[in-house]
Amino acid sequence: MNLNEDIQEVLFTAETIAAANRRLGRQIAQDYAGKEPLFVCILKGAIVFLTDLMREIPEAIDIDFMDVSSYGGSTKSSGEVRILKDLDLSVKDRDVLFVEDVVDTGNTLYELMKLFATRQARSMKIVSLIDKPVHRHQAVKADYIGLSCPDEFIVGYGMDYQDKYRNLPYIGILKPEVYM
Question: Which of 5, 56, 124, 126 is most buried, most CB within 10 Å of its CB?
Fold first, then answer.
């Protein structure tokens, strides 16, 4: 099965994504110079973004992972946020950066920020490769945004539909007939 055949249009090329990562990496390195922030990667979609982003940061960082679900196998958020895998590291008195592939409804990050506040994180910021504010349900705003996206169902560069398309090197619009 050639995954490229299911793509209606390429929104962001690998080169565009790489440029966004360089820009974000420079800004984060400047803002956290002399600190050792904890990057919390929201699995599975953000793993590709985290991998490339952290290579752009010459400062010391820690990384950890959470698997959080609000979509299941659907194209729309259920609104219910479930933690499938929690962190291994403590966030107490740490500067935390949530690493997300896309901020859409904001439900997941809203719930995680509430949780991390009870865990006594020193600070919390959000770095997202894609910002898609049209469906925002919560007053959540990414502090670092790579690219803005129209109201389309996107896949590639870690983002999926039913666990497929994550390995595409670009971000594209999935043809509606694939998921309807």
Answer: 126
